[in-house]
Amino acid sequence: MKRWIFLGLGALLILLSITVYFVFSPSPERSKLPVVSNLPISEDLKKILYYGSLAPSSHNAQMWKVGIRSGNELVIFHDQSRLLPEVDPQLREAYLSIGAFVENIVQAAQSLGYEAQVHLASKSSTKEIVRIQFSPLKSVQTSPSSALEAIELRHTMKEAFQTAALSEKDLKTLESISPERMGYFPRNTELGQYLMQGTIDAMAKQVVDNGKQEEMAEWTRISTSEAEDKKDGVTPEMMGIAGIKKVFLKIFFNKDSLISDSYRKQTVAATRRQAEGAAGYLVITSRDTSRSELIETGRLYERILLAATSQRIAVHTMSYLLEESPWNEEIAARLSLPGMPQFILRLGYVKDYGKPTSLRRPIDEFTFMLD
User: Fold this and answer.
1) pTM, to two decimals
2) pLDDT, position 1
3) Three-class SS state of 181
């Protein structure tokens, strides 16, 4: 009897030790300045690339690849190994992500004293997507620190937000960026409810798709070691999972767990909590679906995110409706918006704005010299 008690206490102690380790051990952190790089380029260009890499991307796949020419020109391509064929077969989200990456580069360059001239490839068939050339600015027009601080602080928040309405001032700040390309729908309106329920229903449809669920699992970094090694994908911290729930996930879950029926149900339940916790939804549109227009819309998206960050408005991109039918076929007409919806953002206020937890690869891992 005493032996069983001893074994039970031993097992309990081991479990307690594991729990303490996962709760209090440091989470993986993204790299910070100064930039560590072996590239034969200026320190300013290294910083510009670093700030560019902080742009958002689907599944945090970071699907950009950058060639450097003559130290003052960047040529941006897609990294084919980082595309998402299941959830993004037409590369819509990939081009939008490149646009956000470009916007960060442009804003960082201006803050560091450079003009960034952006040239979009004229033919969609070419592998080259964007070229950016830098030249010194005669004068810096904006506060160098404000734009860079917003880029570094911007992050997605997955918890339920306060449902209190956005202030008129905050809403005008966002809408003034490009009023003809967006529409805001408060949570308590008919169309706000349509977006909220549609988000939940679209996710319920998406998790049934084995291909999409398996792709999501491949980009989920459960273990700290995998997250630190790959420096991409979605970690428990990015999903807003902490404490005992994070311990349970790290101990008992693996890639197979993420495609189980129980996890799919949990994903829909989490989506419901998130969707219902919002002040409202902001929809961003493009004029068409050409490659150049999607890139420009991605740039607009990032400007909106940075403005929201500066105003401490919490943002969670929940564009599931745009990935699933019938919503992606009906949403433009239903919302009476000009153009084609490309992003749906859940907005609201939170008590604690928090800090970024998403990881990023070092700049040497996505760049190469062209000369």
Assistant:
1) 0.91
2) 54
3) helix
